[in-house]
Amino acid sequence: MSKVLFQHIYKQYAGEQRVAVKDFHLEIEDGEFLVLVGPSGCGKSTLLRMLAGLEDISEGNIIIGDRIVNYISSKDRNIAMVFQNYALYPHMTVYENIAFSLRLSKLPKAEIHERVNRAAKILDIESQLHKLPKQMSGGQRQRVALGRAIVREPEVFLLDEPLSNLDAKLRIQMREEIGKLYRRLRTTTVYVTHDQVEAMTMGTRIVAMKDGVIQQVAKPEEIYSRPANLFVAGFIGSPQMNFIEGKVRVRDGYSLFETRKHTLRISEDKSKMLRDNGSIDKPIILGIRSENLLYRNDDLAKPEQQMNVFEAVIEIKELLGADTYLYTNNKEQRIVVRVDPKTRFEEGERIVVGVDMNHALFFDKNSEALIC
Amino acid sequence: MEPNLVHIPKPKTGLRIRLLRIRWKKIDLFQVLAMIGLTLLALFMLLPIVFIINHAFKPISELFLYPPRFWSNQPTLFNFQQLILKSQTTVIPFSRYLFNSVLTTLVTVAGVIFVSSLAAYAFAKQRFIGRELFFSFTIIALMFAPETVAIPRYLVIANLGIMDTYLVHVLPLLAAPVGVFLMKQFMDQIPNELIEAAKIDGAKEWVVFFRIALPICMPAVATIGILAFQGSWAQTETSVLFTSTESMKTLPYYTMTLTNGLANNVVGQGVAAAAGLIMFAPNLVVFLLFQRRVLNTMAHSGIK
Ligand SMILES: Nc1ncnc2c1ncn2[C@@H]1O[C@H](COP(=O)(O)OP(=O)(O)O)[C@@H](O)[C@H]1O
Ligand SMILES: [Mg+2]
Fold it and tell me: Which of A313, A310, A308, A311 has its CA nearest to residue A356?
């Protein structure tokens, strides 16, 4: 178990114009489960591979524990890695796969035997130890790959999209198992995924990346409720956050968010922050998640709330069991609204949608950064 | 007890009949024809083998029968006796040629496998300057028949100062572009992650090679092993070109002299037949031992 420190890491592949990773600076706490998330091609694997010693570092230092590991080869970094395609040795049995690293480090046979069996027991593959990888299912192979990693008791675990080759059901199951494994071992873990659900459910901290640059580092709740910019806001959460373009105006002492057709009243504290930020009359993007949009049928009368409503036509209805999502059009753009699945809706129906302005987020349209 | 009015077949036979039927249903006319054709072809290809085996055991009277027969009516070990006797009268005993051949062939096979797979591993999985260039040299080398480079090869051997040693039977054969090419095709298919996983597991480069890359490529190893064996066991060139001392020459050379010099010698025919079988037998054994592996090479070269 160790801290990991990335100091202003840059990576440019030989012969490539683009920088794959740019000024990546981050400290990973001892025993943390850090998730690197971002769309594919954003440099997640590159980072992990630099940490593993499989790729040169163009600039900056990587420190594991108290060693700068830039020039230390993979085998001496005391890390373990799980690959997307498992990378099990096809000619070795499960037992030999798991024991491989221990045999190389010349441990006594009895201890190897004990450690392999312990790992197999934790992962529930004791009865499979004599099999070859090709005789196993995807989920089982993934367990073997995990077994191969944990048996070494490394300082850091690296996992590169370990679940993306599994089907949906197995993915959820293995997600839980990896979580359990982590809570049991408490080893520093860096987990790479392009799946924001995995990131949200597994990480103690999330690093959102785009084009090789860190966008935000935060706990799951925070990254969800206070995304640092438009990219993170749009990437985290499903369905995607609704973005509405407009301007903030001050009228009769109230701050209002105005689009071409609609007007929404901004809450007191947010309007103060917007004013302090100098965002009045500047192009602003309002972000609001579908669960903060409320279907109204009877309380249209209250004038105070009437301010924050708009009319919309249901275009598509998506039933997901526990929730129903309405893809509506408010004459300007598409807005996704979460509603109670017990209420019946028809496609083409007109509804009134209320906006919970306390949960609205305001982004600067030019810098795309969160204002408040 | 009511007698059974309807005949119910015993389940066991019924099952067997059904299995037979299912099996036959899957075979259509084309397959039947193809099977007959291939069987005939295989039998035809078998004839020389049958002949060579029987020939070695024929007494002299049968060796010269016209038309020649495949079967030997009175098999005898006379020819083998003669072979051993004859070589006792010459300076160099038969066993010396045999020893030379076995030794140099074993070393050549091991050497070709070692050199080719190491080169292939580097070409497939290492990044170094000139990788493409050197590999294209190898490909170009594929296009030269050995005869075309006999003279430069002679000069190389002569200048190395290894004329008349065992090395001349080994060294020229170690450069096996076919082996390198075949191995590289195989090594290319090993996923990089596998090698990276091994490195993270603590393997040095040579451990990765011997414990991961080579075992995965076993089918290719068997194939180039057979190729190297056949290239070495039956060849006479190195004995002819690079050795002058009789004790450094190999068995195929000796067999060749038997059939050449003693063409009209009656006993010589029998001796040649016996020597021919001794030359041929290892080919058969090696092939039978490795054939499954080789078929694997051809059938599925995928690894995942
Ligand atoms: N070996 C390589 N050579 C050149 N460019 C690469 C190499 N590996 C990755 N890249 C580039 O670096 C960027 C980041 O890739 P990667 O780290 O694999 O992304 P991710 O894992 O987030 O999908 C991509 O633009 C990719 O094309
Ligand atoms: Mg990746």
Answer: A308
- Give the one of A73, A83, A91 whose C-beta lies nearest to B197's C-beta: A83
Which is more confidently placed, A6 or B57? A6
Which residues of chain B have a CB within 8 Å of the CB of A152? 201
A223 and A127, same domain (yes or no) = yes
Q: Give the whole-angstrom CA distance, residue B297 versus residue B32.
A: 27
Return the structure tokens found at B238.
């190195």
Please indicate, yes or no, whether residues A54 and A120 belong to a single structural domain of this protein: yes
Q: How far apart are CA B83 and CA B278, in angstroms?
A: 11
Please answer yes or no on whether B303 and A148 come within 8 Å at the CB atom.
no
Q: Which ligand is nearest to the CA of A16?
A: 1
- In this structure, the answer to whether residues B162 and B116 fall within a common structural domain is yes
What pTM does this model have? 0.83
Q: Note the pLDDT of residue B68.
A: 79
Tens-place pLDDT, residues B114-164: 999 999 999 999 999 999 999 999 999 888 887 788 888 899 999 999 999
**Which residue, of A228, A261, A277, is where some domain finishes?**
A228
Decide if A183 is inside a domain.
Answer: yes
Residue nearest to atom 16 of ligand 1 (CA): A43
Report residues whose beta carbon is within 6 angstroms of any ligand 1 atom. Answer: A 13, 16, 20, 38, 40-46
Same domain, B17 and B102: no
Mutate to test the interface with A, among B131, B200, B216 (most CBs of A within 10 A): B200
- Strand pairing of A324-329 and A283-288? unpaired
Is residue A292 included in any domain, yes or no? yes
**A160 CA to middle of ligand 2, Å?**
7
> What is the domain count for chain A?
2
Interchain CB contact of B29 with A (< 8 Å)? no
Q: Looking at beta carbons, which residues of chain B come within 8 Å of A148? A: 197, 201
What's the confidence (pLDDT) of residue B13?
A: 47
Tokens representing B243 are 């050795």
Q: Are residues A223 and A323 in the same domain?
A: no
My answer on whether A223 and A251 are in the same domain is no
For the cut 90, the answer to whether the pLDDT of residue B90 exceeds it is: no
SS3 A223: helix
- A149 shares its domain with A13: yes
Residue with tokens 């040693």: B165
Query: Can you give the residue range of the structural domain that contains A255?
Result: 242-364
pLDDT, tens only, A15-48: 899 999 999 999 999 999 999 999 999 999 999 9
Q: Can you count the helices (H) and strands (E) in chain A?
A: 10, 20
Residue at A87: amino acid letter: A
ipTM for this model: 0.88
